[in-house]
């Protein structure tokens, strides 16, 4: 048996006969069609949603400020050297 490495679809004459001999009425085609049409889904419990929320001690930062900071992180606003250096300096000052 020769394998077509480029996937050009060249099926030998005997291979074409075998493919044409497959009977779609045998139900296997319907099974494959059902598998292709199925959709994966997931349900997230309230407990999981609660655990996914950041824990912020009350009174330390306003929720609006947290949303704004999260948005800036997500859109890459803080991915510049000057901001990274400033944050690193403040963290160093707090640790030392």
List the defining traits of the structure above.
flat, mainly alpha
Rg from alpha-carbon coordinates: 29 Å
Number of strands: 0
Number of DSSP helical runs: 5
- Categorize the overall geometry: flat
Estimated share of beta-strand residues: under 5%
Give me the strand/helix succession.
HHHHH
Q: Which structural class do you get from the secondary structure elements?
A: mainly alpha
The N- and C-terminal alpha carbons lie at a distance of 71 Å
Topology:
Blueprint: H1 13-20, H2 28-37, H3 46-52, H4 63-74, H5 81-95
Notes on the structure:
There is one protein chain. With 96 residues, this protein is mainly α. It has a domain at 61-96. Helix content is 54%, strand content 0%. It contains five helices and no strands. The longest helix has 15 residues, at 81-95. The mean pLDDT is 74.
